Amino acid sequence: MSGLRPRLSDSAWLNDEALQRILAMLDRDGEEARVVGGAVRNAMIGEPVREVDIATTAAPEEIIRRAQAAHLRAIPTGIEHGTVTLLANGIPFEVTTLREDVETYGRKARVAFGRDWQRDAERRDFTINALSASRDGAVYDYVGGLADLDARRLRFIGDPAARIAEDYLRILRFFRFHAAYGEGAPDAAALHACIEARDGLRSLSRERVRMELLKLVVARRAAEALGVMGDAGLLVTILGGVPYLSSFEKMAAIEAAVGEEPDAIRRLGALAIFVSEDADRLFERLRLSNAEHGRLFAMADGWWRNGGDIAPQTARALLYRLGAAGYADRVMLSWTRSRDVPDNERRQHLLALPARWQPPACPIAAADLMARGVAKGPALGAALRRAEAAWIAADFPSDPATIAAMADRAAGSSPPDNA
């Protein structure tokens, strides 16, 4: 299907000064430029437009020439693929020359720059991602994307198996986009192709898998999509371990019940973490950052001890050691593995502890212990740890006499009370 579709001319994002400046610069003198992909898709269904990509008939060299003439900075971020990043009013816009496959062999294709909007659309992955819009708001649809948007249906363009063979990451992208925009069961032909091609996931870089997976787990219908992936045997291939789908589903329900925004790492922990070794495995398998690995490791470290009936003093000690974010991670993971429902008041009260109580700084410092005769070096570090442990065990006292007594005991050779 092709031709003009409903206009987006009243959209604030499309009328943005910086965007209109770039479109006007490229959309003249025999060349054409349009917004493509996700921005048009989201605008058509009332979702926020966060990134705006532009396609044009102009060759990369012409894009750069026009940008320089208009005093815009042009960065050749992917010029071998026809992509130039233009900066207007400090905002980056990716501008890509239309492309078409001139020869396909196996998983590879020789690509040439083109001028045919339909052929460019047919190279994209899903019908809903192949929409384009001119600067006056006219929407173009060449592959049935608008009908699929109306039906909340995700379909590959053309043969699903052929599209997946071009890039196996499209398996993950299929489930991610279905979770974000789809309704009902996944497209049968696409699902079958994803299952048949699942071994191709092993060929993908860990960074690309991580990127798609972290986007998938926070999507609107992530639990349903992950359930289908689990039934199809795809999750074990990706995670390298057993997925805890009921824990994941409950984490999403708890976030909604307490007003928390979906958190990708916390949800990944609910899905894939049971013991600390799981965090190490995901760190290697997904090339997570050190901070992400640290969060998952802390979530796994004894979550089963932090039930809804833990004593207030124990909860305060946990908050002191983990900080507010780590405390929420641990408490919520424990909650997902319990029988308590998402609106359980006891669990919600426990989770809200950081709003009622902020951990104080330990009042016993190195100088206090040195004044009591402890020399610098390993002995001082050990004494500081004894002092802090005693202070935590006593539930964070603040009166000077108690603190001084703790410092005296920590500086001595005997262990502190309640050690």
What does this structure look like?
The chain has helices at residues 17-26, 38-44, 60-69, 117-122, 145-151, 160-166, 169-181, 188-196, 206-216, 222-231, 234-239, 245-258, 264-272, 276-286, 290-300, 312-336, 345-351, 353-356, 366-370, 378-393, 400-411, and strands at residues 4-5, 33-36, 53-56, 73-78, 83-88, 91-97, 99-105, 108-113, 132-133, 139-140. 38% of the residues are buried. The strands form two sheets. The chain has an eight-stranded mixed beta sheet. A two-stranded antiparallel ribbon has the order 7-8. The termini are far apart. Among the domains are: 1-151, Beta Polymerase, domain 2 (2-Layer Sandwich), CATH 3.30.460.10; 366-411, no CATH class. It is of the alpha+beta class and 419 residues long. 50% of the residues lie in helices and 11% in strands. The longest helix has 25 residues, at 312-336. The chain contains 21 helices and ten strands.
